[in-house]
Design a protein that fits this description.
Helices cover 84% and strands 4% of the residues. It has a two-stranded antiparallel ribbon with strand order 1-2. It contains 3 helices and 2 strands, in the order ααββα.
């Protein structure tokens, strides 16, 4: 493996992990906003809204945040699957180029 190929692969790894960490950060922010802001900080505001026969802030704190978390897990898995596929294609192109094979 040449130094140029190694640099290209290192750049791909760094880009991959930056995108992965940014996605994790953004999804955790969404979950925290739903859990903390929706259920606790605005709890008094949402208390008067009835949802399935209970105050919405109560439902959001006990059931809603869990459902949001499950949705975020599926979103993360789908997004990472696409990101992984893109990285594999780029890595194969870089490896093929280093061997003189057209991609």
């Amino acid at each position: 493996m040449t130094d140029e190929t190694r640099r290209e692969l290192d750049a791909e790894y760094k880009t991959y992990w930056k995108k992965n960490l940014a996605l994790i950060r953004n999804l955790l922010i969404i979950w925290a906003l739903v859990s903390l802001v929706g259920a606790i900080i605005f709890g008094n505001v949402f208390y008067n809204v009835s949802f399935f026969g209970v105050p919405f802030s109560f439902w959001l704190g006990h059931q809603g945040s869990i459902l949001v978390f499950i949705v975020l897990i599926f979103y993360y898995a789908a997004k990472m699957d696409r990101l992984d596929q893109d990285v594999v294609k780029k890595m194969n192109a870089v490896n093929g180029k280093s061997r003189g094979v057209s991609a």
